Amino acid sequence: MFDSGKYLDFGEGKWLLNQTKSNSKIFDAELYNTSLNEFRKILGDSLLELNDIRKNRLVESRISFDLDKDKLLELKEQTNCNYLINVKGVILHQGLGAVSVPTDQLDFYSSNESAVEIKIYELTTGVEMSSSSVFAKTVDQGEISKNNSIPRLNTSSHTAMLMAAKKLIRKYDKYRTD
Questions:
Q1: Contact criterion met (CB below 8 Å) for 99 and 152
Q2: Which of 13, 58, 141, 176 could bridge to 82 as Cys pair (CB 3.0-4.6 Å)?
């Protein structure tokens, strides 16, 4: 889950939530809202939205997910924030429908897969503080069973992406040090 920066102090500074990145046009707004709501539970009024910053400051229309030190220091000057939160969601595979009827064909396999990645940068030093990711997968495959006729509801890749983002952000809350 955490590649780096598992324990963070959310008690000080201004935190900026960047626009989320996703290959799902339908759920990109939902990914942003989920990220905003979950990080707001951790940061309260210390969390600022990029659109609100743009009302009073000249900031680029697109901020990349992966940033180098120079770009981070430039963002510090443009936004007057201390930290930047980037959230990216990816729909990897949407092979299952909403409902599956189990099959005894042992070679049958289908899945819904998505991933979420979060990077948190310290703008005052231009350093990546935390990197975390999670992979969500729903599988339907053939099985030998006497109860093989009961249909199952499947989680879509889009919904799994949102649930994964929520759980990953809650891990940040769990390991906070302030």
A1: yes
A2: 13
Q: How many CB atoms lie within 10 A of CB 89?
A: 29
Q: How far apart are CA 87 and CA 129, in angstroms?
A: 14
Question: Around 170, how many Cα atoms within 13 Å sit in the side-chain half-sphere?
Answer: 7
pTM, whole model, 2 decimals? 0.85
Euclidean distance between CA atoms 142 and 104, whole angstroms: 5
pLDDT tens for each residue of 132-159: 999 998 876 555 565 666 767 777 888 8
DSSP 57: S
Phi, psi of 97 (to 5 degrees): -85, -170
Q: In this structure, what token pair is assigned to residue 72?
A: 């981070």
2-94+112-138+154-174 CATH pick, 3.40.50.150, 3.90.70.10, 3.40.50.720, 3.40.50.10610: 3.40.50.10610
Of 20, 62, 53, the closest CA to residue 37 belongs to 20
Which one-letter DSSP state was computed for residue 26? Answer: T
Q: Minimal CA–CA distance to 29: which of 161, 118, 149?
A: 161
